[in-house]
Amino acid sequence: MSKNICFVSMFDLTRVQYAIARRFEAAENNVHWMTTNPLWTKWLQAQGVDDSRIVELVYESKDYLSDKEKRDLLEEIVKTEELTDISINQSILSDKFVMARKRANLNDYACLYYRDIKLFLMSRQIDCVFAEPSNLNELITHMLCCELNIPLYAAQSLRYPEGRFFIGRGVFYDDMVSVNSSQPDVSPDSGRELIDDFIRTQSRPAYFHINNGQGSVNVKRIGDMATNRMKSLIEGPNRHLTHHHFTDRLSTLVSTQVNSLYLNYFCRYDKLDDITGRIAFYGLHVQPESSIDVVGPYVSDQLKLIKDIRRSLPFDTTLVIKEHPNLLGMKPISFFKAIKQIPNVALVAHSVSTFEIYKRASLVLTVSGTTAFEAGLLGILAVTFSPMYFSGLSSVHYCKDITMLKPLLFRILADFKRDIDADSMFMDRMIRDSFAGYWTDPLTDIWVMAPENIDNLYAAFAAVAEHDTFQHA
Q1: pLDDT at 94 exceeding the cut of 50
Q2: Do 431 and 425 touch, CB atoms closer than 8 A?
Q3: DSSP state at residue 237
Q4: What is the reported pLDDT for 244?
Q5: Beta-carbon-side half-sphere exposure of residue 433 (alpha carbons within 13 Å)
Q6: Contact between 420 and 429 (Cβ < 8 Å)
Q7: Which residues on neighbouring strands pair with residue 371, listed in sequence order?
Q8: Dist. CA 112–CA 60, nearest whole Å
Q9: Each residue of 81-92: pLDDT tens digit?
Q10: Would you call the peptide bond into 325 cis, given omega within 30 degrees of 0 as the criterion?
Q11: Residues whose CB is less than 8 angstroms from the CB of residue 448 and which lie 6 or more positions away in sequence, other chains included
């Protein structure tokens, strides 16, 4: 049976989405597109996508609603908010790029997004949506899909083992779609084998190796960025919400390089070997990033979160902080100076291996980071501040309320015992619920566009759409 499928264009990831969409169309499905950037609208049109299949969410001041129109729409928006797990204001605050623009018309955009996305989903009779859990338009789409009973899916890298990904429902990271019938049987011991292999190899996710060190000064990168921004200026001014202004991008890149120079050469770090007693570890998240801004909106202020963690830890435990080595320099120098002022907190160099920290750690804390997954595989206590797909590991715990962190930490530090059999069974189930394939954008790694990988991605997307879509009707 033919389905109406919508892809939400996400910058360079659009190329991967389009390759998957072509295969959906070959199977006689109708594919529609939602874009927020004229450049990607034009790119889709150049590939032959008909205008009637695209809704472009780009507005000028003349498009803004009148005060009466907004008042009429507000009641409808609030009713949607009552039915969903996030709000419009939360969606705006979770999109750090939008917030950085300091636009006076954010509410106008949110209202227009809401109106036009809802009309689009209903008029095209969309059966399912594939999106990334990142931007304002995607979060509003998630809200409307909840209201309209339309499944929204987001693909996520499994992180370990390499070369697998899963598809989750909604914009969070904890609800893996299970399509067991499409997966091959695995041996009863496969989960334990995966755990043993991880302990032996200390495997790191693919993105770690690809992005590691990109915060260092790169003259070519600066030149390429400046050239691309100049081209945009020559083509004409773009003032839509997702447009990257030349001056903004240049300022961000320059500050990133300055910050990374400080972190590489001038910051005075604590040494892991000098720390006595127990340690807890918090690895800083790259930010802005959906893994903290979207899935952990109430703990996305990392400096405040570090202070709250320190308030909750036993006095004999030092909290060790390490910057994420990927995209080094995105946080200001003042951030690290503030960390060093917090009592019983140690800032170690980003070059220190997390596996060296794990050897000493009694506890790992993160919003949604890979460190908690790695800790779970190693049998180290871990606490996440967002529900995660790997929360089934026996040593991984979810703290929903930061005010309850202290009793949680004291309890689990006192009586934790790893259940290796339960961990092995969980890893076995996780493999069954995931798919072979490599998920990223081609700007990060061009190999994602390899035909055999696109075949794997499409097989997973199609299996999920076929199995899951109409269960929500």
Answers
A1: yes
A2: no
A3: -
A4: 64
A5: 21
A6: no
A7: none
A8: 11
A9: 999 999 999 999
A10: no
A11: 16, 438, 439, 440, 441, 442
Tell me: the pLDDT tens digits for 411-420? 999 999 999 9
Task: Say how far residue 397 (Cα) sits from the centre of its chain.
Answer: 20
pLDDT at 441: 93
Instruction: Report which DSSP code applies to 217.
Output: -
pTM exceeds 0.85: yes
Q: Is residue 234 pLDDT above 60, yes or no?
A: no
Residue 398 above 90 pLDDT? yes
Q: Which two tokens stand for residue 351?
A: 């070059």
Q: Which amino acid is at 58?
A: V
pLDDT at 214: 46
DSSP three-state, residue 361: strand
Using alpha carbons, list the distances in angstroms from residue 376 to 119, 325, 382, 432, 438.
Answer: 44, 21, 7, 19, 23
Q: Say yes or no to pLDDT of 141 above 90.
A: yes
Residue closest to 310 by CA, chosen among 332, 340, 349: 340
Q: Could you give the CA distance from residue 70 to residue 68 in angstroms, rounded to a whole number? A: 5
Secondary structure of 120-165 as H, E, C letters: HHHHCCCCEEECCCCCHHHHHHHHHHHHHCCCEEEEEECCCCCCEE
Mean pLDDT taken over the chain: 89
Query: Is residue 17 over pLDDT 50?
Result: yes
Alpha carbon distance 78, 73 (integer Å): 9
Residue 204 phi/psi, 5° resolution?
-110, 150
Angle between helix 219-235 and 246-261 (nearest 10): 170
Of 30, 4, 29, 2, give the one whose Cα is nearest residue 126: 4
Q: Is 113 helix (H, G, I), strand (E, B) or coil?
A: helix
Q: In this predicted structure, what is the pLDDT of residue 467?
A: 81
DSSP letters spanning 426-470? HHHHHHHTSEE---S-TTT-GGGG-HHHHHHHHHHHHHHHHHHGG
**Gap between the Cα atoms of 305 and 320, Å rounded:** 13
